[in-house]
């Protein structure tokens, strides 16, 4: 690493030290500039006019001439063009597929199918892409039917149950019967009425087709919803002034928000499904966010039991989480009973 | 402050938070002495915090008035007000000094009337935060038991959340208490870790039915009676740990019970899923064949993050080390993995828990750019493709122990295998045990040195399975034994 300069052990000379730090800072700057330059060159190469210009260029006459600058740069330009178009796909569709070869010697020769999901966050940046690596299963002789896919590896956070999604969208004969039970249908407690039709349904489900599109669509929706929830909480925190300049939370105790009297607002866990709110007068509340960004349920408890008025204000008025602070303003709340 | 102990009736209640262990107990000095000076000061200031002062009142002059008047004999005069006591610790914080000084001040000065069980628990958890590798943890998976088989064609499309039980701390402890109180008496302490995305539950068990056991105070610091359960945030896993031999060897006096602690531990572990369960929503714990000393390792391999289901060769995906964000104009093969990992920070989880810690280490991984021979270059590429970012300094998830049982016949080549023989034949199964500070990292080093062939080694050597115990046949891990 160029930035880590070798420091002279216990050099008492202040001048020397000064020079050292100067060198280090210059090196860092050089690195930054180099990075910037690479950014600019690749952006330039990927621009439309240049790409078009090169496409127009007739290939055969130039290839013979090694000194022609166009021949030497054309692979770079091509790779830049390919990269740009794949980036466009990633931005536009959010889910792209790619082949992946397991390097393990025991893995067999079949390539794995990778799916990359890109989610755009609130700050205009993209989160780390999520990957699902699917494996073709062909160990059992299913009368030469279509290839069965199975999730092999993935990078989806733990609170989204890949097993549940898989059992619904990528059912495999045999598996649904045996161990799919642990996850299957566990998501619902409301379809008891389906029980009489069970035997019929069972035979139907084993013949169900795998639906990779549905799988990816549903998974992406869930991931996007999670990011939106996290962003919404972050947005509320910013509005309340609970977030410091650097993005981290402030180290000292924050004075309560003037309009709402809220001292703290934070997601309960990584999943950001529940948000905990604290007021300056000791009331504590919690609300649940739906995937669509609606406050589904809210509970506020103070010293005198539940505060129904605030709860109603949280869930009422369309229930959008972004406007929850406006609904919780003290003057709005105090006015509402008169209306 | 000793409570009258004339009436002792067995109860089913838990041990109270404010049960005081006499400060003169020698083992108390030891168990608090594990902590650093800074940690002790932090703890003392936490105890003196306005919110906690009611739970951990220090010994003040007013307390001594009705008692025997021996204050002059003690080296630390009792403070007059809480503010004064607080000032003492703030002063101690400002100047340098020995740990001893703080420890004595706590035990002989301000908490001379005893350290409560809750204070002990807080001290232990603080120690755990400072030393995440001090215990051996086992990862267990929580899974839902469904009594009814439902094969509905259209499950509600909104609920794909994993089987993470919604846990409310107080309720959970209460139902856990209900489960185990007939069997053991326990003290519970639940706290969120300051450094890791974990909630710790510290359970201290005694096998006496009495509220204030008449045993020696030593047992309260006996670390073999402490069980830790950690709940990582937002994922269906639970880590448990027996505090093995980290503390002082204070067990000999209770030799008859020494064997019992294992049973107590099992009892507690069995009751955790029951305590988490609710009507219509029952959970069970399943082994995941992973045990490691390091909590960050467990979090990486069985945690809420990205790397849980993609390790080894697939860790490049978990770390997003091969491709950048879609807004990056540079072709991905021209950017180094380090830069990729550093660039994509905006994931809500990773920014906090995973990357921050490791990025700093990543920088220190000096990639020597010395000219390479084609051979070693090829090897390096192979190593990269096999191990991904795992085992290098890029993704620190050190396993301290890896047990592998090989079921292959010695000498049999890969292609031919006859399953029928295996079950009954008396083949010697080969067991391999790797121990060290970082097993997978070590294998990677061996591969880098050319001792292990990176292209032909089986995938369990790359840490791809993310387990610490595995049975292997033909290079594939058998899942049935888990």
From TrEMBL, chain A:
Looking at the UniProt record for this protein, which Gene Ontology cellular component terms does it annotate, in alphabetical order? Mis6-Sim4 complex; nucleus
Coiled-coil regions, chain positions: none
Q: Where is this region: Disordered?
A: 1-20, 173-206
Does the keyword field hold NADP? no
Is the keyword Nucleus in the record?
yes
What are the subcellular locations of this protein?
Chromosome, Centromere; Nucleus
InterPro entries, alphabetically? CENP-O
Q: Which UniProt keywords apply?
A: Centromere, Chromosome, Nucleus
Q: Which family does it belong to?
A: Belongs to the CENP-O/MCM21 family.
- Cited PANTHER family: CENTROMERE PROTEIN O, INNER KINETOCHORE SUBUNIT MAL2
Report the protein name in the record.
Answer: Centromere protein Cenp-O
Give the source species.
Penicillium egyptiacum
UniProtKB/TrEMBL annotation, chain B:
Q: Where is the composition biased (Polar residues)?
A: 14-27, 344-359
Q: Which residues cross the membrane?
A: none
Q: Set out the biological process GO terms recorded for this chain's protein.
A: CENP-A containing chromatin assembly; chromosome segregation
The cross-references to Pfam families, in alphabetical order and at most eight, read:
CENP-N
From the UniProt entry, list the residue stretches annotated as the region Disordered. Answer: 1-27, 325-379
InterPro entries, alphabetized: Chl4/mis15/CENP-N
Name of the protein: CHL4 family chromosome segregation protein
Q: Which organism is it from?
A: Penicillium egyptiacum
């Amino acid at each position: 690493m160029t930035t880590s300069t070798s420091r002279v052990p216990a050099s008492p000379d202040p001048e020397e030290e000064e020079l050292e730090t100067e060198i280090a800072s210059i090196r860092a700057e050089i690195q930054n500039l180099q990075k910037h330059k690479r950014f600019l060159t690749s952006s330039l190469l990927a621009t439309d006019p240049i790409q078009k210009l090169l496409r127009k260029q007739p290939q055969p006459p130039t290839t013979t001439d090694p000194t022609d600058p166009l021949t030497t740069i054309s692979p770079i330009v091509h790779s830049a063009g390919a990269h740009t178009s794949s980036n466009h796909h990633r931005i536009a569709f959010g889910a792209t597929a790619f082949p992946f070869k397991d390097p393990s010697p025991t893995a067999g020769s079949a390539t794995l199918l990778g799916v990359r999901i890109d989610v755009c966050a609130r700050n205009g940046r993209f989160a780390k892409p999520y990957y699902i690596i699917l494996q073709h299963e062909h160990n059992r002789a299913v009368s030469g039917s279509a290839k069965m896919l199975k999730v092999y590896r993935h990078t989806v956070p733990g609170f989204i149950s890949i097993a549940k999604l898989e059992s619904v969208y990528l059912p495999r004969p045999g598996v649904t019967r045996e161990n799919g039970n642990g996850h299957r249908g566990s998501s619902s407690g409301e379809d008891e009425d389906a029980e009489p039709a069970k035997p019929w349904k069972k035979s139907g489900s084993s013949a169900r087709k795998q639906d990779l599109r549905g799988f990816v669509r549903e998974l992406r929706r869930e991931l996007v919803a999670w990011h939106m929830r996290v962003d919404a909480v972050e947005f509320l925190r910013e509005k309340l002034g609970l977030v410091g300049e650097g993005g981290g939370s402030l180290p000292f105790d924050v004075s309560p928000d003037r309009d709402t009297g809220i001292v703290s607002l934070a997601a309960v866990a990584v999943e950001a499904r529940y948000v905990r709110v604290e007021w300056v007068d000791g009331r504590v509340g919690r609300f649940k966010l739906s995937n669509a960004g609606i406050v589904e349920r809210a509970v506020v408890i103070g010293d005198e039991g539940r505060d129904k008025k605030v709860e109603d204000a949280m869930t009422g008025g369309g229930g959008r989480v972004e406007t929850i602070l406006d609904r919780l303003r003290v003057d709005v709340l105090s006015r509402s009973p008169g209306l | 402050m000793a409570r009258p102990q004339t009436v002792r009736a067995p109860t089913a209640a838990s041990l109270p938070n404010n049960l005081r262990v006499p400060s003169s107990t020698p083992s108390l000095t030891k168990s608090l002495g594990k902590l650093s000076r800074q940690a002790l000061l932090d703890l003392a200031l936490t105890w003196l915090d306005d919110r906690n002062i009611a739970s951990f009142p220090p010994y003040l002059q007013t307390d001594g008035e009705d008692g025997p008047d021996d204050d002059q004999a003690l080296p630390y005069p009792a403070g007059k007000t809480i503010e004064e006591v607080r000032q003492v610790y703030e002063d101690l914080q400002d100047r340098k000094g020995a740990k001893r000084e703080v420890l004595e001040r706590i035990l002989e000065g301000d908490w001379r009337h005893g350290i409560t069980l809750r204070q002990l628990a807080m001290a232990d958890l603080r120690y755990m935060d400072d030393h995440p590798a001090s215990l051996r943890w086992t990862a267990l998976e929580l899974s839902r038991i469904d009594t009814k088989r439902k094969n509905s064609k259209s499950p509600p499309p909104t609920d794909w959340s994993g089987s993470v039980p919604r846990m409310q701390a107080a309720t959970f402890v209460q139902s856990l208490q209900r489960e185990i109180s007939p069997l053991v008496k326990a003290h519970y302490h639940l706290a969120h870790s300051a450094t890791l995305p974990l909630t710790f539950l510290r359970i201290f068990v005694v096998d006496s039915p009495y509220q204030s056991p008449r045993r020696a105070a030593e047992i309260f610091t006996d670390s073999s009676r402490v069980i830790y359960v950690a709940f990582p945030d937002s994922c269906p896993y639970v880590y448990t740990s027996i505090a093995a031999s980290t503390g002082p060897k204070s067990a000999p006096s209770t030799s008859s019970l020494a064997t019992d602690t294992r049973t107590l531990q099992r009892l507690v572990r069995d009751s955790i899923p029951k305590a988490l369960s609710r009507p219509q929503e029952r959970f069970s714990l399943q082994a995941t064949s992973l045990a490691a000393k390091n909590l960050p390792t467990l979090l990486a391999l069985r945690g809420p993050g990205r790397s849980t289901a993609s390790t080894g060769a697939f860790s490049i995906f978990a770390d997003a080390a091969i491709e950048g964000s879609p807004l990056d104009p540079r072709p991905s093969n021209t950017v180094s993995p380090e830069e990729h990992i550093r660039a994509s920070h905006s994931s809500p989880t990773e920014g906090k828990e995973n990357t921050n810690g490791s990025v700093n280490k990543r920088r220190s991984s000096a990639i020597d750019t010395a000219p390479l021979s084609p051979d070693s270059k090829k090897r390096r590429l192979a190593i990269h493709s096999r191990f991904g970012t795992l085992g290098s300094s890029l993704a620190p998830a050190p396993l301290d122990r890896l047990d592998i049982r090989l079921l292959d016949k010695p000498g049999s080549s890969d292609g031919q295998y006859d399953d029928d023989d295996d079950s009954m034949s008396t083949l010697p199964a080969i067991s391999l045990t790797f121990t060290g500070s970082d097993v997978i990292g070590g294998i990677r080093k061996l591969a880098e040195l050319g001792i292990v062939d990176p292209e032909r080694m089986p995938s369990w050597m790359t840490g791809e399975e993310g387990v610490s115990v595995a049975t292997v046949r033909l290079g594939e891990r058998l899942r049935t034994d888990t």
